[in-house]
Write a structure and sequence with these properties.
Length: 170
């Protein structure tokens, strides 16, 4: 009964001479708000990092296309289709995503355990960090998806080069 709880709270505060009584549900609500704020912040940082990584992959693939224009021209001249060239460049960007995802999962796991170690040995508190394989797998799959999406346009551009223009390059 909320009315009764508030009355008891006032009585305790009156008896103890100014000691502030905080209800347990208020503490839980405050902790939940802090947790929600932290999750929103981490999601924002992760999203920005993912976009930056995607732009990096796109830039890498564009540079690869520029450096390999002649090779693309030769491939087109010997009969490779646009689809096959798109697949070649898309596979390269996906491989970048595989390595980036593996490095991200590895570093994330190491940092999580480092936070746990530091909190236990230097802060005097136990902050247990759980490695959730579902979340780690999701992060890895997201890295592959990001690499695929950001690799599409450079792959399409590479496949759109005319053989004459590509062979003339260099």
């Amino acid at each position: 009964e909320p009315k009764m709880i508030n009355e008891i709270k006032r009585q305790i505060e009156g008896l103890t001479g100014g000691v502030k009584v905080i209800r347990q549900d208020a503490i839980i609500k405050t902790i939940q708000q802090g947790k929600d704020l932290l999750e929103t912040f981490l999601l924002s940082v992760s999203s920005i990092s993912l976009i930056i990584a995607g732009v990096g992959i796109m830039n890498t693939m564009f540079m690869s296309m520029v450096e390999r224009k002649r090779e693309i021209g030769i491939l087109k001249a010997i009969g490779l289709s646009r689809t096959q060239i798109v697949k070649i460049f898309l596979l390269e960007s996906i491989l970048i995503g595989v390595f980036g995802g593996l490095i991200g999962v590895l570093l994330g796991s190491i940092f999580s355990k480092a936070i746990e170690y530091v909190s236990l040995n230097y802060l005097g508190t136990s902050l247990f960090v759980s490695l959730n394989w579902g979340i780690l797998s999701f992060g890895f799959i997201l890295a592959l998806l990001c690499a695929s999406v950001f690799g599409l346009y450079p792959s399409w551009r590479a496949a759109s080069l005319s053989p004459m223009e590509a062979l003339r390059y260099e």
